[in-house]
Amino acid sequence: MARRWAATLADTKGVTLPPEELEPLLLEVANDAVGQAASRHDGALLRFTALYAASPMGIALADPDGGIVEANLALGQLLGCSPDRLRGRHITDLGSTEHDVSRLKAGLEQVRSGRERYQERMLLDHTEDGQLWTDVTLARLPGDRPGSVYPVLMVSDANELHLLQERLLHQNVHDPLTGLPNASSFTTKLEAALGAGARDDIALIYLDVDGFKVINDGLGAGVGDQVLRGVANKLSAVFTGHHDGFVARLSGDGFAVLLRGELAATEVVGLVERALEDLNEPIYLGGHGIGVSASAGIVVRAAVEGGAAELLRAAEIALHRAKEAGKAQWMLFDPELDARDRGRYQLGAVIAGALENGEFSLVYQPTVKLARPDELAAVNAGLRWNHPEKGELGADEFYPLAQTTGMTVPLGRWLLAESLAATARWRARLGDAAPDVCVRLPARLAIDPDLVLLVKEQLDKHQLPARALRLCTDRDSVLDPRGEVLDSLAVLADLGAHLVLTISGSADLELIPMHRLPVRHVILSGPVVDALDADAPADAAIRHLTQLITRAHELHLKVGAEGVRTHEQAARLRQLGVVAARGPFVSDSATGDEVDELINRHPRR
């Protein structure tokens, strides 16, 4: 080669050296070039070998068929054996399961077919520890001949990372206290059960522990947590294994159960009753035998009948109805009742707007003196809702809803303000002949810490003496532990307001001396009054009423009655010592204009 190039260069214009002198020079250049190339090749080979040996990643070099030719120390340590034991094995033999073996085979095929890299997380076999999660990469190295390919396997340890991810995933979809699936997991399960093509029946059960706050506050949060774990275990024991039962903790003391398959309502109810019975059995913690009761709302329907949101809403309504019915029981969702309740809840939701828009007005019920029926003792003020669609609604139709929506206090404040404004007008016209106004305090307003301030502000605003106002309350408000009712009543009495207690029996009456209530009037109500409406009242009812009135007189109280229907009933009450009464025997109710006329006809002397 050097001689040929020497002859070529010797014939080139401008070259004066003869070929025999050029030849050794070219040989020297060629030898130098070959030496440099060999040196670079040897250096690259040494660097690759050092990297292969020192790499913390497990590496196996394979022949074109996938047989392992060499394996580094890191791969041996990762799989719990020496590299020598890996030589001669096929790459696919490292897979722990059939699924992993098939994925390794697929990866080899893809690399042979021209794909540069194949990556998967899979299980490989560890000699001592069994299965090991790893991140596997298959790549291609060029062979000696053009077009030939040698697979290389690279493996890194992903076991701790995979287990961490699994734990995080478990925590993301499970409740950390009870270990049950959480609300998010339950929603996903429900949506899947109701997905396209679903043909099963679905049963959704909402359960809520009754009075859990008593356990939590009385015995401590630690005991409460153990009780919730016990509830979770009992629910799982009852429902798991029945119709693909799926039990979840939604939040706090609320749980949910999903059943699917061929379901009958009677079977589902039977499971729920069994669960409620099991929950009643005491759980012994720290020397305390703690029994819990639960309420349950049940929905059973075909999966194709409505979506997840509708099903969840139905179960929640059924649970709410079970609690309203007295707790510790179940209630099956009833579409007809739902339609009725939906109307009630819609009504409750718009109370605030109705108050702001002036849809409420005062309605009055006169109380007359039984000795002089033409003279008013007081006028009882109440609320009426003039609903634009439903017409006139009485207090019993919207006050329970106001309690649920938090509108009791605003309504009570408005009632008090408007009643005193009306009283101021009457007194401006009639002076002391104007009747007192009696306002029944809603329970939530009676316990309000600002009650005294509210009453004082309204009395001052209308320049009224406190004696013009009668405030009526009842047993439940007096005994309500949430507020300082007794203190508020004492202050109001000191201001001069007349306090009235509604009673229906001896226990109510005895609250007055027991708590030293500054009450001046009691109002007989309910069965004790209704008993006199009969043509021939029972002797026991008469004795009870007589004893009640006698005891009230001993306490120096004036006795009135409400709900009196007939003049005969009013006459009997007068004979027994009742001084005033109200009810249909006088007038059912009167509006603002009508009460003015009524007051003019029956002025107080």
Q: Short description, anyone?
A:
This is GGDEF domain-containing protein. The chain is of the alpha/beta class and 605 residues long.
Uncertain runs are: none
CATH topology of the largest domain: TIM Barrel
What is the radius of gyration? 45 Å
- Secondary structure class reads alpha/beta
**Shape designation:** elongated
Largest sheet: 8 strands, mixed, barrel
Pfam families: EAL, GGDEF, PAS_4
Domain GGDEF: 200-335
Protein name: GGDEF domain-containing protein
Domain EAL: 344-603
Provide structural commentary.
By secondary structure, the protein is α/β, with parallel strands linked by helices. The chain folds into 4 domains: 1-52, no CATH class; 56-163, 2-Layer Sandwich (Beta-Lactamase); 173-333, Alpha-Beta Plaits (2-Layer Sandwich), CATH 3.30.70.270; 348-601, TIM Barrel (Alpha-Beta Barrel). It is built from 25 helices and 21 strands. The strands form 4 sheets. Strands 13-14-16-17-18-19-20-21 form an 8-stranded mixed β-barrel, surrounded by 5 helices. The chain has a 5-stranded antiparallel beta sheet with strand order 2-1-5-4-3, with helices on both faces. α9 packs antiparallel against α10 and α15 (408-430) runs parallel beside α17 (451-461). The longest helix is centred in the first third of the chain and has 36 residues, at 19-54. The chain is elongated and about 155 Å long.
